[in-house]
Write a structure and sequence with these properties.
Elements lengths: L5 E5 L4 H13 L4 E5 L2 H11 L4 E4 L14 E6 L7 H8 L3 E4 L4 H8 L2 H7 L2 E4 L7 H11 L3 E11 L7 H9 L4 E6 L2 E6 L4 E4 L8 E5 L4 H9 L3 E8 L2 H12 L2 H4 L3 H13 L6 E12 L2 E12 L1 H17 L6 E4 H4 L2 H11 L4 E4 L3
Parallel strand pairs: 1-2, 1-4, 2-3, 4-5, 5-6, 6-15, 7-12
Antiparallel strand pairs: 7-13, 8-9, 10-11, 11-12, 13-14, 14-16
The structure holds NADP nicotinamide-adenine-dinucleotide phosphate.
């Protein structure tokens, strides 16, 4: 291998990272490097995947260590590091960067690296995954079909029987009882996780579900990107019992107790092992506005299995675009980096069991 053709997957043996590696290794033989704090785990996965996949021991933050970017052309970040030192090194060195984070603070900090990326010609793609990710793409596609959108609701149904990684569970617990801002009637409005709900019927399901407010960053990204007066994201699980349990935990203020490290570790272990329901992952975007001069409502949806796998599928497809030479430069949200309609259709066709509804729900 020569030049900068290596793809460094950080958090590469985690739930999301290992799926990204599994998708990219056969497509880019000899290029994939799996990185994480436990080199032995990275090596075991690299051996299992084959196709010349390599392993690297890497602990973030770098704490003054030189960035491991020799020969690397693309970094796929599959964890939420404490600092963005590696991202900064990538963008300073002209190395492309994909981030799956759902943490608002990380997204904001990454956006501030835009001038660095512009100077070096690197491209960073943010909001890659399910929410943010698929929800943003569906929102962009929905928005394009309207003359004016007044309100958009983004719904996510997670499978209670899905295997979620420690980082993803940690993020959910951190946001369990969070006060956060949404855009409502054109103004910032403070709300709290799991306090209000909206009713949704996902395609193919016989009955409606209650979905609850949750602090996904996609609602703010979409409101800002498309200047929509009201945008909210709503979460439910396929298991009504799990949805009720999470709601109760939020109501009784479990997040306070979870600041005790031992308790948090215990709850994370239980949630990591708990299987209540299927591994389905559904997203639906409902847009309300004006179409052909008349009030209209349209719904766009995507369905698959395993949130981590869908996140990885989106990340691998974004990687494919970058590695095919689509490198506009700068820091871009996924829906600005790709053309949403064709990207979503390609995802749907990439494997059996994925289904896309474009305004026809
Ligand atoms: N956008 C979306 O829709 C979406 C969906 C799902 C997940 N996510 C995000 O994806 C990320 C990964 O989630 P996941 O479920 O894959 O989590 P995970 O299974 O816990 O994986 C995290 C990986 O990072 C490694 N790691 C942790 N801390 C590290 C450090 N300081 N330095 C180097 N490596 C480190 C872990 O291995 P070691 O601990 O052995 O180092 C592990 O391999 C999270 O940020 C999550 O919020 C986004």
């Amino acid at each position: 291998m020569s030049g900068r053709s290596a793809i460094l997957i950080v958090g590469g043996y985690g739930q999301v990272g290992r799926e990204v590696a599994r998708l990219l290794a056969p497509r880019f033989p000899g290029a994939v490097i799996i990185a994480g704090r436990d080199r032995a785990k990275a090596e075991a996965l690299a051996t299992r995947l084959g196709h010349g996949t390599r392993a690297m021991g890497l602990s973030l933050p770098l704490r003054g260590e030189p960035p491991p970017l020799k020969g690397v052309g693309l970094v796929v970040m599959c964890l939420d590091p404490e600092t963005l030192d590696l991202a900064e090194c990538c963008l300073a060195a002209g190395v492309d960067y994909i981030d799956v984070t759902a943490k608002q603070e990380s997204l904001d900090a990454l956006e501030r690296l835009e001038p660095l990326a512009r100077r070096s010609g690197a491209t960073a793609v943010l909001g890659v995954g399910v929410a943010p990710g698929l929800t943003n793409l569906l929102a962009a596609r929905a928005h394009a079909g309207f003359e004016h959108v007044e309100r958009m609701d983004l719904f996510l149904m997670l499978g209670g029987g899905d295997a979620h990684g420690a980082a993803a569970i940690g993020w959910t617990l951190d946001n369990l009882d969070r006060v956060f801002t949404v855009q409502q009637d054109g103004r910032p409005h403070e709300v709290r996780s799991f306090r209000e709900h909206e009713v949704v019927r996902f395609p193919g399901l016989p009955r409606t579900r209650k979905a609850w407010r949750f602090n996904f960053p996609d609602q703010r990204m979409v409101a800002r990107a498309f200047s929509i007066p009201s945008v909210s994201t709503w979460l439910c699980f396929d298991s009504a019992l799990l949805t009720a349990g999470m709601r109760l935990a939020a109501r009784v203020g479990l997040s306070w107790l979870l600041r005790v490290p031992a308790l948090r570790r215990g709850v994370m272990r239980v949630l990591g092992a708990c299987r209540l329901g299927s591994d389905v992952c559904r997203v639906l975007v409902r847009a309300e506005g004006r179409l052909g001069g008349h009030p209209a409502t349209r719904e766009f949806a995507f369905e698959g299995r395993r949130e981590a796998e869908l996140t990885a599928l989106v990340a691998a497809e974004a990687a494919r675009w970058l590695l095919a030479g689509h490198r506009p430069g700068g820091v871009l949200a996924l829906e600005r980096f790709v053309t949403p309609g064709p990207f979503l259709r390609r995802l749907e066709e990439s494997r059996p069991g994925l289904q896309l509804w474009m305004g026809s729900v």
